[in-house]
């Protein structure tokens, strides 16, 4: 009896070993020999084979697919690129299990209704970019119940009809960048479930913000590079989960009151490269507590819109580069500047900065003032922020070579070794005889600045403190 029991144990252990061996073989599937799937190629990845079929004709590709169908294993990634594959026929992928499918630059004009049906259980991402699709292949897509990402960039889609993505209940990311869309039906996104959190509608021909009320979980929305000229009240109704909104490169001229009031959770707003000259005092109503990143660069603002910005309690980055700002009044950042860490004022027409202008910027780390018309920038002006600054850029200004910028020379010497500084243009100033000098090479004694001269008997050196940089000041006494 004992011997029989031992034999049964051995048999069971052997069976388990065989099963584990089979499971391991299935998990670690190897690529087929190259000559069998030519012109396709295969690379072994940790999650399964990755197969690429490029620069070939349709008959050769279909032959490769037939070989793959004879071998039962899950293909992690299957890619078709740079082919002439105008029609994806019904049941093209019958017999294949594919997780990620790319059919890019293949001249696709038609995706037949049942072409993707057999991938319904396994397909997670689908890339149909750079093709000739004029409409969304709704009937072919609706079976893909596990699809989380759909890329339709660079096609010729002009209209999104009703329920264009119906059935895609697991869809999380959808990109339609650079099509020719002029109109989106009100119910275009119905039937997509409640998981879609990222939508890219950039570089199309949209003149109005489409109705996106059905997308209640949307967090990132891109509407850049369209033809939007007006943002109407209610345009973002239902999008109270939105975290990031990109509206750059449109034709917006004015921001009216309450246009973003539904976006109470918005953290980042990009409205660069528009024609904005006027902003209503209540334009950012509703964004007071959560907005941290605001980009208003490349517009037509001739002043800092302080009256609009004061309610923003947690603003961290304010980008106003490439506007028409001429001066910075002393109250420019009053009431909201305490939280700002990154301030971009480069490429404006700023001629002077008053001594108390930066007084409220207690958290400032980056200050960009390059490409302006500054002739003077005294230490008293920047003193309120010197203790927190880790970067300052005042290159490409007509600064005068006088003792009042020697503080900048000292600061730049401490900062010049960093990678950030190396990417900047040279900081220069103009001498009395109209010569351009590198500020780092200025000689204090030549300019007549004794307080900045290298004096071995000095007991104090006026040096700005740069956070993250330990400055060792060694005072050497010549007294023996």
Automatic annotation (TrEMBL):
Pfam families to which the protein is assigned, alphabetical: LRR_8 (PF13855)
Give the matching InterPro entries. Answer: Cys-rich_flank_reg_C (IPR000483), Dev_Immune_Receptor (IPR050328), Leu-rich_rpt (IPR001611), Leu-rich_rpt_typical-subtyp (IPR003591)
Residues of the signal sequence?
A: 1-28
Entry-linked SMART domains: LRR_BAC, LRR_TYP, LRRCT
The UniProt entry's GO CC annotations, sorted and at most eight, read: extracellular matrix; extracellular space
**Keywords from the UniProt entry:** Leucine-rich repeat, Repeat, Signal
Q: Which residues form the LRRCT domain?
A: 397-450
PANTHER family cross-referenced by the UniProt entry = LEUCINE-RICH REPEAT-CONTAINING G-PROTEIN COUPLED RECEPTOR 6, SLIT RELATED LEUCINE-RICH REPEAT NEURONAL PROTEIN
Q: What's the name of the protein?
A: Insulin-like growth factor-binding protein complex acid labile subunit-like 2
Query: Which species does this protein come from?
Result: Homarus americanus
Q: What is the lineage of its organism?
A: Eukaryota, Metazoa, Ecdysozoa, Arthropoda, Crustacea
UniProt lists the gene as Igfals-L2
